[in-house]
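Dear Dr. V.,

Thank you for agreeing to look over these. As mentioned in my earlier message, I'm a first-year student in the group and I'm still getting used to reading structure tokens, so any feedback on how I've presented them would be very welcome. I ran two proteins. I've put each sequence directly above its structure. The first is here:
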Amino acid sequence: MPPATTNGAPLTVVLVHGAFADSSSWNGVIERFMRTLKEQCLYLHRFQSLAEAHRLIGEFITRYNTEWLIERLGHQTPAGARIAANTTAITISDRVRLRRRHWAKR
């Protein structure tokens, strides 16, 4: 089956969640997200067109990322967890940089 497209471009879903990219923990994350997507969006709508499906699924994903509190993420939204992870990464990076400067001065 060819991939679904919209205006000639393939549809893409990107999941950002509390799993490590190189671990099998993604299996459970993806299965849980797909279950939620089906129960809270796909099973509730009879899409009349690909454009309508794209719009409604996009709205659900936006709501999921910005409003749903995920237990695995410490009861944060996925968007909030991503911001926290980026902030932590920057903080760690800054600490390393500062430590290098400190040791370079000695």
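The second protein is here, in the same arrangement:
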Amino acid sequence: MTKKITNRTKIDNYKSTIKPKAKKPQPETNGDTWSQKQQKALEIAMRKHPSSIPANERWENIAGDVKGKDKRECVLRFKALRAALKKNKRPAKK
């Protein structure tokens, strides 16, 4: 008795070999904890290193000024804070 192989069987076999993509950490739920000192250092570093320099270089410099955090963590923190500010921003009443 032989098993009949259909296109559906091939697709199912193929799908079972594919690994699911790893999810990107969301800025607000990445699990990182930031001390007040690190937060203040991030704010100061962002003012110190202007956005006129190339982004990769800027974030490397910013991360160098924030003890215990790397470039990725600083970028994620910035994005989380920006999203929170946009979410809380309400249009002015007339």
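From my reading of the second output: Residues 71-88 form the longest helix (18 residues). The mean pLDDT is 83. Does that match how you would interpret it?

Kind regards,
E.
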